[in-house]
């Protein structure tokens, strides 16, 4: 998987479980969105990240807000595939996905949609790495 913004150094690279979590999320393409669902057949946004990282060997808290608080915040420049992408609204994180490289994320968008790869649609995002 290529990325448009490589890590600053090997120490900054996403942990191997981030890359594994990315593969798990991609394997769930087409799974329907369901509010509060954590898999394996239905997901909400943070349920997909929780499930993907758990399958990769890393535990995350349940909600996007909690996941943001329990991860290492990184700059856009240092993001790599397998990092988390958060979409803030006010003082909370409204949405989360897994960075796939090339300004795209795997995510469970909203009710009525399915897990998919999509271009990041906003400049108002935050990046974090599960460590």
What does this structure look like?
Residues 1-12 have low confidence and may be disordered. This protein has helices at 16-27, 45-55, 64-69; strands spanning 72-74, 84-89, 92-101, 104-107, 116-119, 126-129. α1 crosses α2 (45-55). By secondary structure, it is α+β, with helices and mostly antiparallel strands.
SSE layout:
Blueprint lengths: L15 H12 L17 H11 L8 H6 L2 E3 L9 E6 L2 E10 L2 E4 L8 E4 L6 E4 L2
Antiparallel strand pairs: 1-6, 2-3, 2-6, 3-4, 4-5
Summarize the structure.
The chain is α+β, with helices and mostly antiparallel strands. The protein has helices at residues 16-27, 45-55, 64-69, and strands at residues 72-74, 84-89, 92-101, 104-107, 116-119, 126-129. Strand 4 and strand 5 (116-119) form a beta hairpin.
List keywords for this structure.
3 helices, disordered N terminus, six-stranded antiparallel sheet, 131 residues, alpha+beta
- Kindly state the mean pLDDT as a whole number? 91
- Residues in helices, as a percent range: 10-25%
The value of Rg in angstroms is 13 Å
Query: What oligomeric state do the depicted chains represent?
Result: single chain
Strand order of the largest sheet: 1-6-2-3-4-5
